[in-house]
Amino acid sequence: MTAPKLHICTHPLAQHKLTILRDKETEPKKFREVVRELAMMLTVEATADLLTVDIPLSTPMGDTVGKKLAERVGLIPILRAGLGMVEGALEMLPSAQVWHIGLYRDERTLRPVEYYNKLPVSPTVQVCLVLDPMLATGGSATATVDILKRWGATRIKFVGLIGAPEGVHRLSEAHPDVDIHLAALDERLNAIGYIVPGLGDAGDRQFGTS
Annotated catalytic residue: which of 109, 124, 154, 209? Predict the structure, then answer.
């Protein structure tokens, strides 16, 4: 399954780290560390098209022209699992603004329910990165992009670790302008809406609550 805006990171280091996350024996501390590291790599890929401006500067050996980011970036982790990706993204974008949107999945309907929104009154960035490890049903991601567009955001990207075809299709169908960056596209969802083979519940595995 492919989508016009779907980008899969095939870098060997990313695939190595993803294997560690999939392993059910990986402890929460190690899991959190690897989520941070993989988030760093995915953030680099997701921001490859950021605009820059030339700036003159002097090195110890002489004068040259460097590049400076010309766009501000906002990070929007979907609570709670998305929190684990924030630190890695901030390693790459230390000046990024961070806001939080809280959604939980109703286990009966598999539909997202919003319970928290910490966006400012109006957009203060040019690019928004939605962070959530799993793109499963696509409900939470789609709802978050809905919220951001109503807020006024115009350039939005989704950054996750693993996606299911169902989630990619739902997000792409609802928001065809949103780039999706993942480390893997897995086989399918199971009967209770979890990605197969996936890695289980990313929030529970990060915070030791499984």
Answer: 109
Overall residue count recorded for the chain in this entry: 210
**Selected catalytic residue, list 22, 72, 105, 146:** 105
Cα–Cα nearest to 136, from 85, 84, 88, 78: 78
- Assigned fold of 6-207: Rossmann fold (3.40.50)
Task: Give residue limits of the domains in the chain.
Answer: 6-207
The sign of the dihedral angle between the CA atoms of 155, 73, 29, 105 is negative
pLDDT in tens, the chain (210 residues): 556 699 999 999 999 999 999 999 999 999 999 999 999 999 999 999 999 999 999 999 999 999 999 999 999 999 888 999 999 999 999 999 999 888 776 777 767 788 888 888 889 999 999 999 999 999 999 999 999 999 999 999 999 999 999 999 999 999 999 999 999 999 999 988 899 999 998 988 998 887
